[in-house]
Automatic annotation (TrEMBL):
InterPro entries: MFS, MFS_dom, MFS_trans_sf, MFS_Transporter. The keyword Membrane applies. The lineage of its organism: Bacteria, Bacillati, Actinomycetota, Actinomycetes, Kitasatosporales. The chain crosses the membrane at residues 55-75, 87-107, 143-164, 176-197, 203-222, 251-268, 317-338, 344-365, 385-405, 411-429. PROSITE patterns: MFS. SUPFAM superfamilies: MFS general substrate transporter. This is MFS transporter. Its main location: membrane. Residues 1-34 are annotated as: Disordered.
């Protein structure tokens, strides 16, 4: 079993027949799953391949978190370096998610012929090199080219990373998606810290970016050797993958639409925090300039913590309960922020937001994979577009409402949208009728 090469598709289907008494699988909702066959060399090879694939993919999420944070936290420095006016800056900022959406659409088409692992292997270096290019140029056209390459590559990267995450979760037979996004959050914290150090040391952007790219670029290329492409369940009457590992089947937008709405609303909430938390705490709640930096840091830390333990919650209580609770906690956080009498209560609200919003995006990708087991790559790529839709809508929406109405009132809009997510939480339930035996079952033995 070639466990250390890209394109491995380890699949283990439980044998037919009655389940031994008292044996259950990794899903609390999936009784009757066969335990792993002891001392099986083939099973051991598949288990090692999955573990290596999980670790390498987690590192890819981490590296992407670092790169994205290094870009977005140094936007003022990029603006100064290239002389981008305040009027032109929104054009540059909007172009990145628009091109990322185009990249995600491209990824949906490419995975019909190319494995997601290959897309990830080559898109991540482009992202890192584009980041370095943005910091090293001195003409506006060079910034435009670098950001265009960054945006297109990020769209392919985000889609392919989550494709692999969804297929790995299916192979594991239990929730692991939140762990990958926890690695992204950790990378974001590290990247923001490195950006602060570079700004504090007054380093040129390329000087601050170069060591990071020099470390991450070879690391992700080496790690890409262990990426694992999953395989859809082979169920009679359901499309799976062909002999080359490419998926069949179609994605019905009508069925995917509730998840698209959840993804959009989650990113409207996230972009509200990232773009408006500092200004809101300082201008509306009367916090100091130093205190205004705290809400986003707290939000990132609680997002990391929530995603670190979130998979345990999904395994214990199910995705529907976790998503519904997350949506309610996030809505409570927006309500606290909107009604806060002072900055410290506002910080409490942003803390609640991190705890609530953190579970929504990973579980939305996972739900799309369950909903379309024979076309999960296409479903993930299409769903990923609404990541950028929410990002594009969120910040301008809250800003416009704040100017036209009040910034406190503006916080109630993402609160209402997040509450809609609680209504759609049923879309995150497994579809047991898609599997033989009346229950959703894993494709491999339970591996660590």
């Amino acid at each position: 079993m070639p466990g250390a090469t890209s394109g491995v598709t380890p699949v283990m289907t439980p044998p037919s027949g009655p389940t031994p008494a008292g044996k259950t699988g990794p899903h609390s909702s999936s009784p009757g799953i066969y335990p792993p066959v002891a001392h099986s060399p083939t099973l051991a090879a598949m288990t090692d391949a999955l573990r290596h694939g999980r670790a390498s993919l987690a590192f890819s999420f981490f590296a992407q978190g670092v790169a994205f944070a290094l870009l977005v936290t140094r936007i003022p420095a990029l603006q100064d370096r290239y002389g981008v006016s305040d009027a032109l800056l929104p054009v540059f900022l909007a172009a990145v998610p628009i091109l990322a959406g185009l990249g995600s659409v491209t990824a949906e088409q490419l995975v019909k012929r190319v494995r997601p692992s290959r897309l990830l292997r080559w898109s991540q270096p482009v992202v890192l090199l584009s980041l370095l290019g943005a910091g090293a140029g001195d003409r506006m056209v060079e910034l435009a080219v670098a950001l265009a390459a960054f945006g297109l590559a990020v769209g392919v990267l985000d889609a392919s990373m989550n494709m692999l995450g969804v297929s790995l979760q299916r192979a594991y037979g239990r929730s692991i998606m939140l762990g990958f996004h926890a690695a992204y959050s950790l990378g974001g914290i590290v990247g923001a810290s490195l950006a602060w150090a570079g700004a504090h040391g007054r380093l040129a952007l390329w000087v601050a970016y170069l060591p990071v790219v020099a470390v991450l670029l070879p690391a992700v290329l080496v790690g890409s050797r262990w990426y694992v492409d999953g395989q859809a369940p082979a169920v009679p009457g359901e499309p799976g993958k062909d002999k080359n590992g490419h998926e069949g089947g179609t994605v019905a937008l009508r069925l995917l639409l509730p998840l698209c709405l959840v993804m959009t609303f989650a990113y409207i909430g996230d972009s509200t925090v990232s773009n408006w938390s500092a200004k809101y705490l300082q201008d509306t709640l009367g916090g100091s300039e130093q205190l205004a930096t705290v809400p986003y840091n707290v939000y990132m830390v609680t997002t990391l913590l929530g995603r670190t333990v979130g998979d345990l919650g999904v395994r214990r209580f199910g995705a529907v309960a976790v998503v519904r609770l997350g949506a309610l906690v996030a809505a409570l956080g927006f309500a606290v922020v909107a009604g806060a009498p002072g900055p410290w209560v506002g910080i409490l609200g942003f803390t609640l937001l991190g705890m609530g919003l953190c579970v929504l995006v990973p579980q939305t990708f996972a739900a799309a994979g369950r909903l379309f087991p024979g076309a999960s790559d296409a479903a993930v790529a299409r769903l990923n577009i609404f990541n950028y839709v929410g990002f594009l809508i969120g910040s301008p929406l809250v800003g416009a409402l704040g100017d036209a109405w009040s910034h406190r009132g503006a916080m109630l809009v993402p609160m209402g949208l997040v509450l809609v997510t609680a209504v759609h939480a049923g879309s995150f339930a497994p579809r047991p009728d898609r599997y033989r035996g009346g229950h959703e079952r894993p494709r491999t033995a339970d591996v660590g």
